[in-house]
Each structure stands twice: as structure tokens, then as C-alpha cells.
Queue: 4 jobs
Job 1
Amino acid sequence: MFKEVNMSDNETVILDFEKTIVEIEEKIEHLQAITNSKMDMSAEIKKLQKNLKSNMETVYKNLSPWQKAQIARHPDRPHCLDYIRALISDFVVLAGDRRFADDAAMVCGIGMFEGTPVVVIGQEKGNDLDSRIKYNFGMARPEGYRKAQRLMEMAESFKLPILSFVDTAGAYPGVDAEARGQAEAIAASIEKCLRVKTPIIATVIGEGGSGGAIAIATADRVLMLEHSIYSVISPEGCASILWRSGDKAKEATEALCLTAQNLKKFGIIDEIVPEPLGGAHRDRNQAIETLRMALKKNLQELTGTDYAKLKKQRTAKFMKIGSQFIAADTPQKKK
């Protein structure tokens, strides 16, 4: 069994656009603390609560892509192990790629989801300094992707559906990872996703960065939490290439169209999973339960489909995504 991540070391992180909301929350807490039989502050509290809800609805309805990126990276947001602990019963970790080593950033195993045996593959970022170092901030090395491939093969052998949880800034770019074939491992993982004859449901729960995310998100159904992000490169990486400066990350975020809303419009993902008002980090339990229902629905829809047909449809789906953008970039001949 996996060890639960200790959340007690986290400090509360307040994003710039949340400051007014936090101030109202603190006023409500203060009034609740001083309310007693001699001093009834219920009317003022009710007024502040109404103001709080109105402020939150306004702020979170009009988030910019950069603000969504900040929420997607929020340290208090539920991570892979949080979803596994809540959604997958009898979870057993399966370690190692049978070639080199085990990669902690890529969490793999088997368990039960709503009474159905499943294979689980996910990226864990960690919740405090020690766990972030242990999980390498969610950036897997080649052995992580080869471990994922091993689990996909096992899922196919035992006809088990695959649930993947995507949350990474990208694959680990270190010299040691490159020396062991990082690019090949990612490409092989994408290929395995396309070839495996069993249902795959991928969910971007936070940050889906580059090939490191695509390697386990080439699925029959790709879901994204409402305030998560998914792109071919991180905003900072894009800014360093285009503007030679990481300070342009905000502009890069706008250009990348990496929000769930944009990607759903382009047909890159299949479904947006709503988050609690204020983001998943404000109500972890509700966020997890909403995802539970979305996964259950999609798994029921895929169950019973002929595996060969499923594989064919999956390949066609991603070929269509590629062809539509190639067509858009191809200059049209003048008549």
C-alpha cells in the first residue's frame, strides 16, 4: 500500500487575485469568533457571506489564462495520490520498469474503482519540500514512462481499464534522463497508449505539460478539471524560446490557449470536469467526488465496446486532431 502524503507542513498560499476574497473570509471568521449571547453578529455575517459569494463568482468566472495556470499549480490542490486514496480502493503499488529502476514521480498500480478492477497510472508532484524532492516535482525519468508501458501491457493482458491522472510540468530534462533515452521512452509510451486494446481514461488534474503529459494522456477519453492547463510546453519554456525571457510567461500563457475551455473548443479534450467555486484547492472533497462521477460515467460508456474497435477509434481520434491543425496551417492555392 502507498504511504499517505502529509499535508500538515503546507502553508496557506494566497494568489494575488484572491486577496479580497481572503480578507472577507477573515472578517467572517473574526465575527463568528466574537459572536456570543450578548453580541449577535449574525446579520453582519450573513451580509459578508453574500458579499463573499458574489466576489468569488465574479473573480472565478473571469479568470485569465495566467490566473488559471496559477490555480492549476496551487500547492493545496488535490494531487494524484489524493485522488487515488479517495477513489481507488485496495490500491497496490507496482514498482519498477524491469530495466533500470523505479521512478517515484510516476505512480502505478492496480485497485478497484466503483467495484471495477482498474490499472492506475499517475504523476505525483508532492505536497511539501520532502515529498516534492522524493517525487521529483512530478517530472518522470525514462524508467517512469517504461513503467507506465509495463502497466499498460498488464492492463491489456488482464482486460483491465486504465485510469491516468496527469499532473506534471513536463518530463525530467536532466542529463541522466536524456542519456537513458527520455525522448524514446515518451514516444514509446504514446505509441503504447494508441495500441493498447483496453479502455483508457485520462484526466488532467492540474498541470499537463509537454510530452511528459501526453505520454499518459493519449486516451479514449481525455478529461480536464475546470481550472487545469494542458499544453505542448510550459508558459515559462515558451517565453524563453519566443522572447528569450521567462518574464513573458503571462503573454505565453495567453498565446498557448492552454485552458480547458479552449481545448474543449478545439476538440483536443472530451470533457471539462467542474471544480468547486474557487477551485479544487478550496474544497478538495467536492472536487474529488465530482471527478468520481465523471470517471464513472465515462467508464460505463466505454465498457463493453469491442477492444479492437476501441483501439481503431482512439487512433482515428488523434489522427483527426493532427490533421485539422495541419490543414489550418497549409496555405490554400489560389484559384
Note: The radius of gyration is 21 Å.
Job 2
Amino acid sequence: MARTSLNPGEIGKITATQLGSGRWEAGAVYRDHAGVTNRCRKKGRTAAAARQALMDELRERLEADSSHGEVGPSTLVATAVETYLQRRLEDARNGVGQANPRSIKIYRSVAANWIVPILGELQVRHLTPGRLDGYFRRDVPPSRYPDVRKVLHGFLGWLVVQGALRTDPLANVQSYQRKDVQRRSKDREVTASDLAAVLEAIEAWMTAERPGPRPSSVYRDLVVFIAGTACRPGEALAVRRQDIDFAYPVEPGVTRPVVHITGTVVIDDATGNLTRQPHTNLALSRR
């Protein structure tokens, strides 16, 4: 029967042999992540000591061989989290992915308050399913659970990509979202009377006698635009002339004005200035 070949990163059978000097030598064949088969031997005063020394050596060899990313299994969680958030911020500034710099700022706050103080001194390899299960049971309050799990899930996925973890340890950890935690109230539809009341308030504010700029329709126009397109304020402020098509074909022989929501206005964390982000959470077209 042919011997089954080892998979990359797999260790074969460990054997221990007593030497003439009374010491023991443990050895095993392993296959590195490049597919090359190697042999490793370590000595010890007892068979158990030799086996343990062999396993420690093999773990270090395979770890060094497998981790080609910016972090590895022995990297501290605090260091790995900082690297992860910095890369997410760079991607957000370059328009890569769904997050924006403002979102990364929120992620950083969650990590600084709920992840780094509790898990930061652990090595990445110690983020096991059992440890994370206990972490969510004991250390994360119910009101913060959704935010913490969201940030941690993204972080652990990035660690898998980096080669620091083989699988996401959070994948099989059950949810601890509690039913009795008060959630955000449900949104309700804005009625025509709601919009009329807002426009009347704007009109009264702009026409009142007061120092400052002369009355303008800018605020009223912005509210009407948001009401008509259902976009966010930042998205409305990011609309450019080329984003508006006054003769967009909606069906054969029929055209309507359409605005394409392709960006939003955010604050650049580096400069503190408002800037147009060239994407939104979801690209939309509003008629």
C-alpha cells in the first residue's frame, strides 16, 4: 500500500529512539508550505522531552515558513490590530472597499476600548474559539456586543489572509446578542406634512430679521433634494453636475431626470478638511 503523501504544513509520524548515552532522539518528516519534504530531529533526556523539543522546533519552522504577511502567529494582538486598522484606513482613503475614514475611526475606538485592553497582550495564535467564547461571555457588555463582534470578525478574517491564522476562530462561536437589549427605534416613513413643516421652519428662519447672510434657498433646496432622492446629506453634498442626467431612458421612448449617487463628503482624518469620497456604501441612482 502506497504511503499517503503529506499536505503542505503537515507533520508525519513522530518516532523516539533511545541513544547509547541514555538520551533520547525524536524525529519526524514534515512538508513545508512550499511543498518540500524535510526531516527534523531533536534530542532530550527523556522520550517526552525529546518529543516536546521536536514539536517546538517544527512549530517554529512551519510558522516562519507560512507567515508571509505583515503579521504572524506570534505577533501580539495589540500590534496586529494597529496594523490592520492602519491598512483599512489607507484602503478607505484610496477608495478601496466599503469603509470610509470615518468608519475606521469608529473601528479604532471599539478596538481601543474593548479588544486591545483585554486581548492585546495575547499572541495571535492564542485567539482560539474557546478563548473568544469566554471573552464574549465575560468581558463584552450586551450593548457593545454587535460593534465588537463586527470589528473582531473583520480583523480575524484579515489575519487568515495574512497567514497568521489558518481559520477564523470566530466562525463557530455562537452569537451572544441578547433579546432584551434596547435597539435603535425603527425608522418611519416621512410624510408630506413632515416635509412641509420642515420647509416652513427653514423659510421662517431664513426670512427672520437677523444679522448674517441674506436669505437664500440653499437650505431649502438641499432638504428637497434629499427628500426627493432619499440620499444621505453627505451624498447630496457630493453630487456633481456630471452625476445628473436630465434625459435618462427609463423605458423605450420615456426619459426622466436621474441623479447618480456616486460619492459622499467625509472628513479627512489626516488634514481635518472636508473631502469628496469617490464611493458610497452602495452605488445608487435616484430619480
Note: The CA atoms of residues 237 and 247 lie 22 Å apart.
Job 3
Amino acid sequence: MGVLELLTVLLILASFFSIVNLRILKLPQTIGLMVLAIALSIFILAIGLVFPSILDSVSYIVKSFDFEILLIDIMLPFLLFAGAISVNVHELLKDKITILLLATFGVLFSTFVVGTGIHWLVEQPIFNLNTLGLSYVDCLLFGALIAPTDPIAVLAMVKKMNLSVITETRIAGESLFNDGIGVVIFLTLFNIKELGIENVTAASVGSLFATEVIGGIALGLLVGFLGLKLVKYIENDHVELEVLITLSLVLLVSIVSKQFHFSGVLGVVVMGLFLNQNIDVDQKKEGVQRAMGDYVYKFWHLLDETLNAILFILIGLEIIPILQNFDSNYLLIALLTIILVVVSRGIGVWTPIKFLSFFKAFEKNTALIITWGGLRGGLSIALALNLPDNIGEGKNLVLFLTYTVVLFTILVQGLTLKKIVK
């Protein structure tokens, strides 16, 4: 199936599922679409028991497109830019220390706690999984890919929660930046895996980490500054030109980041925040103007919603190859992994908030809301699919655990978040 045919099928499914969800299920859009896509996948698997050729054809189509390239190289930059220009950047700058501490400490803590915990569980004879050959670095890779929350899923849910501006900004900002930190940690560990831990020095790891983070942020600031000069020069007179400029800048940051091994995720987020002068009515009275016209924000909101719909349908369809390699031994360890991920996320969020509460005010139960709002999504699955095949059968376990955590956070945490907030 070619790109055009695949895109046509995905858009038709997105339109049909959206109507069904709107009129029948009435769930939040992202959750409803994924539920319907999973239901379709299970239906195809059931049909495949009777007509194996149908299942083989669908499995081939699902495997034929590279989910990792499709999401990380194509969809993610646009989705993150759309998220960055929807955040109240003035509130974010007021609370930048809180957001950066939550994003860095939370991801690092969760990576090592989950990675260490999974390695210990796999080694236990009760699970009969010690033959899979998962090393400690492999388990840390799983910790790194499951630690960052999915800003696409988080932002989609948070917008509908009627939270206070400061709490909403903290959740949105943390999810945008922990994504970039998580990818950098994953790539650093991946490099250690490829080179062999005995050939890696602390200096080389530090250099790689610094290049990814500092390079990504610097590129985002540079392109954002030049982009801001361009859109201000136009002065909102040609909104279609502003859309064209923002589209080209997102692609430029992605391509340059890939070429020089910078973090494209951080670059796109920083550029979006730089371009975004998202202000409220009171600030307008002080003579502050948006750099871009409302048409640009509406365009990116439309693109965000469309790509979101496609992404969550893809997540639902990805269950087909994972269930085909299902092993009942994985169920108990999957349940323990979910508990480990949620608890480590909770501690990773609660600790910096407790420390910062000596210096600034936090609303009651902020840590609980940020913890339970830590939804995982397509990024985790894309990174899991990108793991090297030399992990062996252990890759199937990592994929199954990743998918289980993603399903739990989106379906269980996502559906109960509103009640937790209330």
C-alpha cells in the first residue's frame, strides 16, 4: 500500500470513528478514536482465525509503514509545535524553574527506577523470562521510552479539564519538555547499547547529552528569533504567508536537527514558544500584540486535531502485530510494570513539588493531578519499535509492556482524570 492509499484509509477511518464517538460513545476524542481502532484490530484478529489470509494482509499493511519514522520524523514536530503555540508562554516563563525541574528530575528518576525494577523482575524465576537475554541497559532503554509523558495526549485532555491557568501551564509545559529530555536519554542509552558499555566513557555520554539538549535549544531559539522577525515584518497582513512560514520553519528545525544530531523535539518546542505570544485580554490593554494572526493559530489547531486523530488510530492498529506475539507469561509482569511506572512517576513529581513548595505556592493535590495526568502515547510505542533486533525475543516483551502501559494510561487514567481533578 502506497503513502496516498494509506493516508486515504486513515482519514476515512478518522472521519468515521469521530462520528461514531461523537454520536454514540461520547468519549474524549483521543480516547474514543483509540478505543474504536483497538476494537477494529480485535475484530480483524477474530476474523483472522477463520480467514488467515485477511489477517496476513492487514498485518503486512500495518508492518509496511515505519511507525517510528512516521511519528518522530513527520508527525511529532508538527504536533509539538501546535502544542507549544497553544501554551500560555507568559505563565510558563513565570514558572520555568518548576517546569524544568519536573521535566528533568521526573524523567531521570522514572527511567532508572523503572529500568532497575524491570531488570529485577525479569531475573526472577517465577516469571520464566530470564532466557530472553534482556540486559540492564535494555531495561533502562524501556525505562527511558516509558518515562516521558505524551504531550499530544496530555494537552488534548488538559484543555477540557477547567484547571486553573497556573496548574494547566505546569502540566502542559512539563509534558512538552519531558518529551525532549526523555528522547535525549533514550538516544544516549541507545548509543551505549550500540557501542557496548565497555567502550563508553562518562565524557562521551556527557558530550552526546549536551549536544542533543544544548544544540536543540539553541537551534530552536535561533530559528524562532528569525521566524519572529519574519512574521512581525509581515504584520499579520498576509496570514496565508504566516502559515507557510511556520510550516517551513518546523520542517527546517527537524531536518537540521537530524543532520547535526540535535534534539529536534526540544528545538521545535522552543521555537514554538519563542514565536508564541499567547496573551489574554488584560495583557492586550497594555499594548502587547500577538506576533501571528488568529488564522495561524486556527490552522495549527486544525492540523493538531487531524494528526491527533490519525495518530491514535495508528496506536490502536499497532496492537495487531503485538497480540500476534502474545505470551501469557507477560500478563503478571505487565501489571507490576504499570504499578511501577505510576508509582515512580508519582515520586518523581512529588519530590520536586515538595522541595519547591518551600519557595512558592502549589494548589492542593497538584502532584496527584500531574501524576495521574501523565498519559503515554505514540512516542513510547515509536521508540519501542525502534529498539535494535539484537535484543532478541526480549523486544516482544518490551513492546507488550509498552503497549500495556500506554493503554492503561490513556484508557484508565485518561477516563478518570476528570474525576480526580474534581
Note: Confidence is low (pLDDT under 50) at residues 279-288.
Job 4
Amino acid sequence: MALFPCNAVIDERGHESNFHETAFPIGCYHDNLVEDPVLWHWHDELEAVVVEEGVCTFTVDSEKHTLKKGEGIFINADFLHTAIEDTNAGCRLHSITFHPRLVGGSLDSIFWQKYLQPLLMDTSFRCISLSQDTDWQKEALDAIESTWQTGVLESPGYEFQVRNFLSHLIWLIVTHLPLSQTAPSEKSLRDGERIKTMLQYIHEHYSEEITTSQIAGSAMISSSECLRCFRSTIGTTPIQYVKQYRILQAAKLLTSTTQKIIDIGTLCGFQEMSYFAKSFKEQMGSTPSEYRKKCGIP
């Protein structure tokens, strides 16, 4: 099974690519949140994470979960989420993203109808954080880590082992879901869909000049409504998000290509080199040239 770095398969829409169309629909990730923050994105797959080092905060829609080493989170399909490192001391994650059919099988199977479908259709269940202090949650964390280790090693027959671990994880989640959850309001669901549309627009046009009005227009709402949606869901303004996204795209190009720094800045929507360098240092803690050298790129 391929071991992916963080964000390796996030497309320009913010939607994770469709690796689930492969014969064995699962991806393993080793995420370093200092080098590669997990951008806002969503996908059709279920996701499970264990924190290997440090402290981070996962935000799923507007729901925040701060996790430390040994803790984790299970995220339902199709919910916007992101993860940031909290302490500037480093944070690493082991995460798995898998299509529900890996456990559920065909739509007419008992596994799908009794366990997977109710989970996926429950719009009140965004995610659940997992702690070592609760027996069943510790068991779930062990299942996540066992899935990750087994998938990475790819020993003979690992596919059966991975499916068994994931089946046990789903059983634990389904049988311990909170009994009383409040379904999100129509407004919250509507905001989530609008944000997805606007993020897709930003991810497709970040190299161009972008205004709040253009971002709002992509979702057919007013600029003031666009600002409200971004602040309530993502916690920042649309233009600030554009700048953050541009910097992260520039960081990827700095470490994956030998293009000139000034050309990378231009490709990522920065017209002035001084503003690019200043913005990059504010967000990444070093100048573009320092960042490139630190990553071993000449």
C-alpha cells in the first residue's frame, strides 16, 4: 500500500482524489503538520487518525477537537475538515482514509445496510475524538494504528488483516455513537455546501487576482454573506484564506521543483517579490530561500 505524505492527493477543488476507485480503496498517510498542514478539504471516504507526536487541533465543520500524543479522531464522510499544529514544537500523525465499501461491501450486504449506511446517513455525526482513558476508545485507537502499520508493511495477506481491523473499528464506532446528537441546522448544512463551492473556486484560481466579490459570486451569494460563511466555518476571511493557500502551494513548489523563487511567487499569485517573501516568512517561519535550503533543495 502506498504511504502518502500529507495532502499528496488533494485536488484543486479541495476534494481528496478518488483512490477509492482502486481495487483496495485505502490510503495511509504520515503527516508532519509543521511541514505540511492539512488544508481544508473533504472526501467521500471515512478517515481515522492517531497523533504520534505533539498537539494539534482538528476542525470538522465548526467543531474543534484538540488532540495530544496517543489520542485520535474518527471523521465521517463528506465533512469539511482541517488540522493545525498547536505548539510549534512539531506534530506528526498516522492517518488512514478508506472508502466505506472496503468494510461494507456491496449495497445489498448486511454489513452495508446494518452498519455503514446508518453511519453515513447520520448528518448529526461529524466526528468523534478518541482518548486512551476510555476502554472502547483505546481499543479503537489500537485498531487504527494496527491498520496503519499493517497497510504500510504489506506482509502477505495484509489486505485481510486491514479489513478485519477496520471492521472492528466500525463496530466500535457504531455501537458507541452518542445517543443524543443534534442534527445540524439547514443553515449550517447550506453554509457547508457554499464553503465547498467557494474553496473549489479559490483552489482553481489562486494564481490569478481574486476578490471577495468573485469568490462570493461562485456560490451565488453576496460579499457580506461570503464573509459571514468564511468567518463562521473557517474562522478567517476569504482573502486571508487565499493568501494562506498561495503560501502553501508555493512551499510545495519550493521543495518539489528547482524553479526560481521569483517565478514560484508569480505562479502562486504574488506580483511583488517583497510581499511574497514577507508573507511566506510570517506563515512558514522562514524566507522562501531559507525554507528551500532547509528542505535540502539547492
Note: The first helix runs from residue 101 to 104.
